[in-house]
Specification:
Elements lengths: L9 H24 L7 H17 L23 E3 L9 E2 L2 H15 L9 E7 L2 E8 L2 E7 L5 E3 L2 H4 L16 E9 L2 H13 L8 H9 L4 H6 L3 E7 L10 H10 L9 E3 L2 H14 L7 E8 L2 H7 L1 E2 L2 E2 L2 E5 L3 E14 L4 E13 L2 E7 L3 H7 L2 E2 L2 E6 L6 E5 L9 E2 L13 E2 L7 E3 L6 H11 L12 H9 L6 H4 L2 H6 L13 H12 L3 E3 H7 L7 H11 L2 H10 L6 H7 L6 H12 L1 H13 L1 E3 L15 E5 L7 H10 L3 E3 L8 E4 L5 H9 L2 E4 H8 L2
Parallel strand pairs: 2-13, 23-24, 25-26, 25-27, 27-28
Antiparallel strand pairs: 1-6, 3-9, 3-10, 4-5, 4-7, 7-8, 10-13, 11-12, 14-15, 14-18, 15-16, 15-22, 17-20, 18-19, 21-22
Helix pairs in contact: 1-2, 17-18, 18-19
The chain binds 2-(butylsulfanyl)adenosine.
2-(butylsulfanyl)adenosine binds next to strand 3, strand 8 and strand 13.
Length: about 700
Amino acid sequence: MKASLFDFDFEDAKARHKALKTKIRKHDMLYYAEDKPEISDADYDRLRLDLEEIESRYPKLITKDSPTQNVGIAPSKGFKKVKHAVPMLSLSNVFSEEEANDFLKRVRRFLGLSENEPIEIIAEPKIDGLSCSLRYENRKLVLAATRGDGAEGEDITKNVKTIKDVPQSLPDDAPEALEVRGEIYMSRADFAALNKRLEDEGRKIFANPRNAAAGSVRQLDPSVTAERSLKMFAYSLASVPEGLADNHYSVLHWLKCSGFKVSAGVKAVTRLDELMCNYHDIIESRPNLDYEIDGIVYKVNDLALQKRLGFVSRSPRWATAHKFPAEQAITRINEINIQVGRTGALTPVARLEPITVGGVVVSNATLHNEDEIARKDIRIGDMIVVQRAGDVIPQVVRVLTEKRTGNEEKFKPLEICPECGAHAIREEGEAVRRCTGGLTCPKQVVERLRHFVSRLAFDIDGLGDKIIQSFWDDGLIQNPADIFTLEQRNKESLTPIREREGWGGLSEKKLFESINDHRTIPLNRFIYALGIRHIGEATAKRLAVTYGSIDALQDAMITAGDNDSNAYSDLLSIEDIGPAAASSLVVFFAESHNLEVLSRLKDYLIIEPYEQPDNVDSVVGGKTVVFTGTLTKMTRPEAKAKAESLGAKVSSSISKKTDYVVAGEKAGSKLKKAQDLGVKILSEDGWLDIISQ
Ligand code: IVH
């Protein structure tokens, strides 16, 4: 327990609560919607625990939109939405023996049992996949759904029907209506084979088995899911019909006898020492399993006790997950190479003597930057402890200096870019060294192209890393706009793609299909795809909400080139946009090459406005507001930030689509235009009244 959280006064706690909410939401998006997590499960869980701690201290901060009040995020487009008859909740976590003991104590205290009273717990491996709910009616599988936000998920029935572990029908003596819950996963072997195939086909590979399972189950074409060899372990029933079982172990037994797969390693335990002994046994056997597990789930066995224990916030009081620490191993650094990224950042990467860390072969680890190398005194030839936590890139934890032989070599930062020979400089206050080659550095250009087609951007599956590189090498694609003229140019080419090594008519056709499927793109994804430094997915969304169209964004960024302009202060008033992000946007839109490519892209694509989910709790959620004139009770940036935090879109120009014009003192032509168009006009006080409702 971190006492430091309680050192905060209310204002600090409020600020920290807000920051944590934003962070958790971002990681929820990455995890649930994009299958592309950036932090380990353990780090994510810590964020949630911190949030819960603040809320338990200051319950006033518990708002409906707090991540503690719901699980994950709402389902994405493409699949039909389904309401779960019984919500699909999440589990609280424990990370240590002490916390596991706290869980047991809490259960006993709640049930009014004495301190030493044994309580039967079922310990099950926590499978690292994605949860699924299977509804059976008249013993036939009628619906399979993802968890989604816990209340509503996606209908993935067609896809799940292709999974062999999922029975299509139940034995005659099974109850008439039943909902089975379990985890869909991909075995390590199938994951390796899938990635190999994707790589051979020049397509994008998955970072880990969980992402591969989630990506495969959410394919719009079930025949693709069918090819992906997914598996499933069942772990519970949404509600247990009368007479079927009176404890969880019997439920698992029943599931197994009824044709479901139940994971190995399920144990009944009672005392803390048994829990811990089982925990260590499972950790030891973990590398030998053919699937990934990220902890152990403890569940009170007796269903009557489970019922009494019930739920707290969105997790059962009768269960918790004992998470594993990051996995570590010892190996040697053979080399330190420099990788050049799309923004020119030079990242040192340790090439390791390949080593298996928790069932995955690791041969590279990021060293972040030269300060990090100096801080940890990492040298070429060193024996080091490498760590892999969840989905995060492996890291060097520390050097085993006692193993040094004296032949280790210090790393010397490069002063020229290894890819293009331009100067690599480290600006004051920056941790990273950057190549100054810009668009003349081939590596930066190729990385930008890769980013442009990546999953959160255009998501063009047919253009994997190798294909991008080879098309670039041969001059077929030199900038993002070229992707969309490739088909036409190919028709006229004397050396068409189908004649390249490894290609044929079918793969050529598929490539163009995958490009053409992405000629329409939401504005937020488009902005993200541009790969502007400091503009990640969340910031791109904010820009899309604020400016509404690519033309409006472009105009505003050109005007914002003048730091005294309103456009510049408007830009800085957007959440998450500080001077660095603002300057990189301005620089991007000042570069004529970028504007040329943009103008071509606008010709080839349909860029859709970003649809912001309605902020149901707020009267102004989803409404478009224009502020004009001089505001006296708040600054313009403040007004804007407040409106946006309530889900409104703030625009600088008035149209028929404008819902409110807030007219301050000396409002001029905009006020007149609003009157002409019949848009609702509010005084500053009128606006404050509305938003305080
Ligand atoms: S029981 C009320 N048992 O872990 C939730 N969950 O963090 C009861 N999971 O969404 C879940 N293996 O996807 C349970 N043996 C297991 C599990 C398991 C993996 C996942 C599940 C759930 C998540 C909770």
